[in-house]
């Protein structure tokens, strides 16, 4: 039902109806925000990336054939743009390493509860691992859906999940109940 | 099977179905190994903590901001189209002006018709004089 309505909205948006596209944005904002925030954290860049996701979707409306659901298509764009943003951050980190280290040290001092620690540890994961954790463990996609969205084999999803979880558990073992 | 292998097996059991053999191995390891049991409980806690419990959002008026950006994109596109064809528009206007100028120069009179390239009608075409028919008579 939802898919049908999405398709109708897409048809109208293709014809230049901005109100229909706005409706699509309102409908899928939650999913996109969840994925982008779990990848980038609650940073100002997260909203910029969120906007870019929908603009890219708007620009590619004619290419969207409806083979996958709109939400899956959007989440895929969100993951790709978030990975690009993480790469950019990494480059900036290399360039302005000193500043970032200072920020890092302050973050370590400030981290007191589990949520902060977890956010910090999630940010320390490699981007590819973070994408798997975000989709499977934060957003609750199945392993199969995660594999489809990221276009990687199911076995890779499982092994990345396993390695990421072990890393997170080791980092947080003192804060978690035995 | 060492504890790390058992831990990986436990994690795999949370995301995929294990074979009967692996399932039995995992259950046996969980019963025998207290450390593995602790780790498993920590993983379960972590996963409960990680899963999103409420719908996220980019804040109020996000859709409106997108709609605004789209309308900006459209006007930007119109602007680009206009400037893309501007050189052709100027070229066409130049050709028309040149043709009009040539017409003025070639023609010996200055009238709208001559400027637009319409030949002035000769007097014979305006007043038909049937000279030949009179001659025969």
Structure notes:
The complex is a heterodimer of chains A (178) and B (137). Chain A is mainly α and 178 residues long. Chain A folds into two domains: 1-108, Rna Polymerase Sigma Factor, Chain: A (Orthogonal Bundle), CATH 1.10.1740; 111-178, Winged helix-like DNA-binding domain superfamily/Winged helix DNA-binding domain (Arc Repressor Mutant, subunit A). Helices cover 80% and strands 0% of the residues of chain A. Chain A is built from nine helices and no strands. The radius of gyration of chain A is 18 Å and the shape is globular. Chain A starts with a helix and ends in a 6-residue tail after the last helix. Chain B is mainly α and 137 residues long. Chain B is 75% helix and 0% strand. In chain B, helix 1 crosses helix 2 (20-32) and helix 1 (3-15) runs parallel beside helix 3 (34-50). The longest helix of chain B is centred in the middle third of the chain and has 45 residues, at 62-106. The radius of gyration of chain B is 45 Å and the shape is rod-shaped. Chain A binds chain B through residues 18-19, 21-23, 25-26, 29-30, 33-34, 37-38, 46-47, 50-51, 54-55, 58-59, 114-115, 118, 133, 136-140, 143, 154, 157-158, 161-162, 165-166, 168-169, 172-173, 176-178, and chain B through 7-8, 11-12, 15-16, 38-39, 41-43, 45-47, 49-52, 55-59, 62-67, 69-71, 73.
């Amino acid at each position: 039902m939802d898919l049908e309505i999405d398709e109708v909205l897409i048809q109208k948006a293709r014809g230049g109806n901005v109100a229909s596209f706005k409706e699509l944005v309102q409908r899928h904002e939650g999913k996109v925000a969840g994925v982008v925030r779990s990848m980038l954290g609650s940073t100002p860049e997260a909203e910029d990336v969120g906007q870019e996701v929908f603009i890219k979707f708007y620009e590619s409306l004619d290419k969207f054939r409806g083979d996958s659901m709109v939400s899956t298509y959007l989440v895929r764009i969100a993951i790709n743009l978030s990975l690009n943003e993480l790469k950019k951050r990494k480059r900036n980190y290399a360039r302005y390493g000193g500043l970032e280290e200072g920020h890092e040290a302050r973050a370590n001092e400030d981290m007191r509860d589990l949520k902060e620690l977890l956010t910090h540890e999630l940010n320390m994961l490699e981007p590819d691992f973070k994408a798997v954790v975000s989709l499977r463990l934060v957003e609750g996609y199945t392993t199969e859906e995660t594999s489809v969205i990221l276009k990687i084999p199911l076995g890779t999803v499982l092994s990345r999940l396993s390695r990421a979880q072990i890393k997170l558990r080791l980092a947080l073992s003192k804060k978690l109940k035995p | 099977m060492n504890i790390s292998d058992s831990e990986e097996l436990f994690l795999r059991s949370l995301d995929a179905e294990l074979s009967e053999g692996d399932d039995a191995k995992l259950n046996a390891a969980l019963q025998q190994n207290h450390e593995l049991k602790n780790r498993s409980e920590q993983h379960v806690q972590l996963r409960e903590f990680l899963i999103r419990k409420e719908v996220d959002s980019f804040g109020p008026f996000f859709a409106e901001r997108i709609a605004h950006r789209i309308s900006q994109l459209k006007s930007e596109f119109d602007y680009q189209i206009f400037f893309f064809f501007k050189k052709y528009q100027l070229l066409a206007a130049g050709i028309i002006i040149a043709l009009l100028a040539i017409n003025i120069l070639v023609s010996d009179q200055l009238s709208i018709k001559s400027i637009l390239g319409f030949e002035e009608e000769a007097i014979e075409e305006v007043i038909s004089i049937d000279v030949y028919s009179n001659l025969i008579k």
